Amino acid sequence: MKLKKFIAILSVATMTAGLAVGCGSSDSASSDEKSSKSESDWDSSNDITIVSREDGSGTRGAFIELFGIEEKKDGEKVDMTTDDAQITNSTSVMLTTVAGDDYAIGYVSLGSLNDTVKALKIDGEEASEQNIKDGKYKICRPFNIATKKGEDNEVAKDFIAYIMSKEGQQVISDNGYIGDDSAEAYAGSKPSGKAVVGGSSSVSPVMEKLIEAYKKVNTGAEIELQTTDSTTGMTSAIDGSYDIGMASRELQDEEKDKLDSQVIATDGIAVIVNKNNTTDELSSDQVKTIYTGDATTWDEVVK
pLDDT by residue (tens digit) across 182-197? Predict the structure, then answer.
């Protein structure tokens, strides 16, 4: 009798365990189903949320030029970005905007790209440092710094010498940008004092790293960083508000007349979409049709 009772209890326990495992498998399957459903919910017939940067942004200036969104009319360059585009005023806002909207498209500095969004291949090429070096990924632009002609701030001069040195260019490479591999070692005078650096929000993240590294070799220097935009960076360098201005684009002719400038790095521009977007690649022409407003839904560009 005792043996029969034990077998009965064992059978019940086994059935209970089996039910528990079955329930667990069901929950797991349900979870996988939800995940799969979430991915397949993306609908290409929805409107594209076009996100662009503000006027004065060097990233916007380079983006519209590289994709042919800037056109000449009556001898002047005209930005043809659609009026329907949402405007963001910084790299971080661009990233959070695209990450929060399944149907958004935007663009950021390659060095600022993170895993909250997905970078698209453009014309079959991935946005990567190596592809830029190899000349395969064409959507790239210079990072410039500029000083007013006749600038005599010794700290600013020495900091620029550090940026262009082997050590400074290594900081640039370590942060995902393309520097000068042939630069010579830093041999500055390490003066004491203060310099103000300001401008492009795309250049700002790597400039912050450069400032941190420079302060380790010149503890007597104080470098203040102000993040604005490329145009403000140049105009403020001209009027003396900034000792060093930053721009994530080429300098304009009127800026070149009043400033001494140099390229500190090359950076790619990544075209980004939400991670739920099933699109992995666009051509340059497709990007242009989106940003000029000629295509308004995803299925017009993604067949």
Answer: 999 999 999 999 999 9
Domains of the chain, first to last: 49-140+270-300 (3.40.190.10), 142-267 (3.40.190)
Instruction: Give the CA angle between residues 56, 62, 64 to the nearest 5°.
Output: 90
Distance of CA 190 to the CA centre of its chain: 32
pTM of the model: 0.74
Give dist(CA 202, CA 228) in Å, integer. 10
Residues in the chain: 303
Place of tokens 């400033």: 259
What region, left, alpha or beta, does residue 41 occupy, with left being phi > 0 and alpha being psi -120 to 50 degrees? alpha
Contact 154, 191 (CB under 8 A): yes
* Separation CA 124–CA 299 (nearest Å): 19
Distance CA 142, CA 166 (A): 18
Closest Cα to residue 245, out of 101, 145, 172, 168?
Answer: 145
CB atoms within 10 A of CB 239: 10
Q: How far is residue 30's CA from residue 65's CA, in Å, rounded to a whole number? A: 48
What is the structure's pLDDT at 23? Answer: 42
Return the H-helix or E-strand segment holding 22.
helix 2-40
Low-confidence ranges of the chain (pLDDT < 70): 1-40
DSSP state of 241: S
Helix or strand holding residue 141 (H, E): strand 140-148
With contact defined as beta carbons under 8 Å apart, do 246 and 207 qualify? yes
What is the enclosing helix (H) or strand (E) of 265? strand 259-273
223's enclosing H/E stretch is strand 221-227
> What local confidence, expressed as pLDDT, does residue 293 receive?
97
Strands 104-109 and 259-273: antiparallel
Please count the CA atoms within 13 angstroms of the CA of 147 that sit on its side-chain side. Answer: 18
